[in-house]
Amino acid sequence: MADDDVRVERDGRTMRVTLNRPDKHNPLSRPVLDRLREIFESTRADDVACAVLTGEGDRYFAAGGDVRDLAGVRTAEETRAMATQARATLDAIRAYPVPVVARLNGDAIGGGAELALACDLRVMREGAHIGFIHGRLAITSAWGGGVDLPMLVGPARALRMTSRCELVPAATALAWGLADAVAPADRLEETLQEFIAPMLRQSTAALRGGKALALAARRGAPVDQRLAIELDAFVVTWTHDDHWAAVDRLLSRQRSG
Description:
six-stranded mixed sheet
């Protein structure tokens, strides 16, 4: 059922991935997580400028792990394997070579909040929430979200969110850096398109270079490694046909002006 539960579409230079079980609040079962990992590891066309990850419906982006699917995970060994599998999926999203934008059509809670934070950027609907509410089930985060959260909001706010199981509303998420744009429900898609429009005007090589640097910083790579990544990206983009075409356009405008 995972192929039906996750929809993949191409919209020009955008890869769009949709969690498609709105009747169950878009839960993250192990088959769904495996399908997401497959998509983000295998769908890396050279002309893709960005990926958009969203949920079907208007209530939930993703409501976290599928409790029915995970109810049989009991032993420490099984738990470690399950968490490692899920984190590998989110790592595939983190490592996707161009920006990944979460379109938060509804609440992102528990593992769904970790999924949203695995993305590079977030466009959020008014009325939606982000909540690390794992504590309601007497557990902690396990898929890398507990590392992502304090990097975005700082350790004190991260602890506040996890220890109080807070559902952070869109306006607060924007102020804290959990969201990058907020839109009324009837303008969410329009706002998303406005948000990604500048990305779609950039060359894929330039976008990949910027993403590589952001990912290196996210992983805590040492400065010398990040400088090497920056230099490599510059060489690739400078010598690329897209760069020289842009130079020719600039010089042409200067001559005509």
